[in-house]
Design a protein that fits this description.
Blueprint: H1 2-7, H2 12-21, H3 34-44, H4 50-64, H5 86-92, E1 97-98, E2 104-105, H6 107-111, H7 113-116, H8 156-165, H9 180-210, H10 228-234, H11 239-251, H12 269-280, H13 287-290, H14 305-308, H15 319-324, H16 349-358, H17 384-397, H18 405-412
Helix pairs in contact: 3-9, 4-9, 5-9, 8-9, 9-11, 12-17, 16-17
């Protein structure tokens, strides 16, 4: 056991205490997605039996292993080994420990699980205390990325950048002091949790849609008795569910939208004036949420997509059942106060360009209207120059307080 390597010369009593605190206990098993189970049951009025739910758990274990011993699904139509590296997963998974050569293990449990949870559900021991909540990886939506489309996964570099930079203004710290191999292991493990979580959701949908009664099963197989070959054959009709998810991650790098170079006068007074006009105008309409002065005091009151999936503001009493199965209490999402100059996705001009271009998936922040590649003759859209002007104006608000940034520029000049 890797856990034992950590103890070295500790007394037996000390080892037992450490084991009770987190090495190899049941609290570190993957938890089923009870919130999504309930949501599917509420929508379809289909109550899955304990046997059917157990089948889903067994299928996930067959494909993905456990939190202590991860596996990579073996699928016929997509090579998941191009998406996930098993050695990296083993480095990130399991109990916290180290080898004599200094190689560390249990990286996710050490650095991430307290907030993001063992299952990647965003409901770790500290999860309910955070604002904003830690990300639930299982839905497959990531806010800050370079790929086009709200449901397109991020690239490895996107995830690595977030680990190194952290998320300013949130509880997500920077992990820039970790070794490159450790960062790579955590990137792969986040992908692993997201793929596993998305497949779990797909299996739940498949169950409520296709099973005709409590005795009907997704796969006619004895998971604790049959050979891996027999189980794999029995799951062949379900394998496309996993293949689809893995393929999206595999192809994500092909959907990156590069940030164009900044124009030479991108932050000139004229550029900032144009940005302000766009910010206040009907096309970009940033003021609707962020307010005319960038205070984040616009009229919009909304929730993020992770909350809206189970919470209906028109029927708030219904949330009690979801809280009982592990959902976090709904919190309204607020637009960023741009005057602070603190942006969760990074404060470089290129970071802000991407946030305006892509929007922030999972939130009310939309993508830029009519990107150039989607435009048709006569359509209103924001060109790259417009986006750079908006970036210039947003950055001009930082530290300006309630002052008019255009008047401030005129005063300086």
């Amino acid at each position: 056991m890797r856990c034992s390597r950590q103890f070295g010369g500790l007394t037996q009593l000390a080892a037992i205490i450490l084991l009770a605190a987190g090495c190899g206990t049941s609290q570190h098993e993957f938890r089923p997605n009870r919130v999504y189970q309930k949501m599917q049951q509420d929508i379809t009025r289909v109550d899955l039996s304990e046997t059917q739910l157990a089948d889903i758990a067994e299928i996930l274990t067959f494909w993905f292993g456990t939190s202590d011993a991860p596996l990579i699904p073996q699928l016929d139509d997509v090579e998941v080994g191009r998406v996930l590296d098993l050695d990296r997963l083993r480095m990130a998974a399991g109990p916290v420990g180290s080898e004599e050569d200094g190689t560390n293990f249990g990286l996710y449990r050490k650095h991430c699980a307290v907030c993001h949870g063992i299952s990647g559900d965003g409901a770790g021991p500290a999860g309910a205390l955070l604002n904003p909540y830690a990300r639930d990886f299982r839905r497959g939506i990531f806010k800050f990325k370079s790929t086009v489309g709200p449901m397109t996964p991020p690239t490895d570099e996107d995830l690595r950048t977030l680990l190194v930079r952290g998320m300013p203004g949130t509880s997500m710290p920077s992990f820039h002091l970790l070794a490159d191999a450790e960062l790579d292991a955590l990137v792969d493990y986040v992908k692993y949790l997201s793929i596993r979580g998305a497949v779990e959701r797909a299996l739940l949908v498949e169950s409520v849609d296709e099973l005709s009664g409590p005795d009907d099963r997704l796969a006619d197989v004895a998971f604790d008795e049959d050979s891996p070959e027999r189980i794999g054959e029995a799951l062949s009709d379900l394998a496309p569910l996993a293949s689809y998810v893995a393929r999206e991650w595999r192809d994500a790098p092909t959907r990156v939208a590069a940030v164009p170079p900044r124009p030479s006068d991108w932050n000139s007074p004229e550029s900032i004036r144009r940005g302000r006009e766009l910010y206040l105008g009907e096309v970009a309409n940033c003021a609707k949420c962020h307010g005319t002065e960038g205070r984040g005091d616009g009229e919009t009151v909304d929730y993020d997509d992770w909350t809206k999936e189970y919470f209906d503001p028109q029927n708030p009493d219904a949330v009690r059942g979801y809280l009982a199965v592990g959902a976090l209490k709904p919190r309204q999402i607020r637009a960023r106060d741009l005057r602070w100059g603190v942006f969760h996705g990074g404060s470089r001009p290129e970071d802000l360009y991407q946030r305006i271009f892509h929007g922030i998936p999972g939130t009310p922040m939309p993508a830029a209207p009519m990107k150039a590649e989607d435009a048709r003759p006569g359509d209103i859209r924001l060109a790259p120059r417009d986006l750079w002007d908006l970036v210039a104006f947003v950055l001009s608000l930082s530290g300006a307080g309630s002052r008019d940034p255009i008047a401030e520029i005129a005063r300086r000049n």
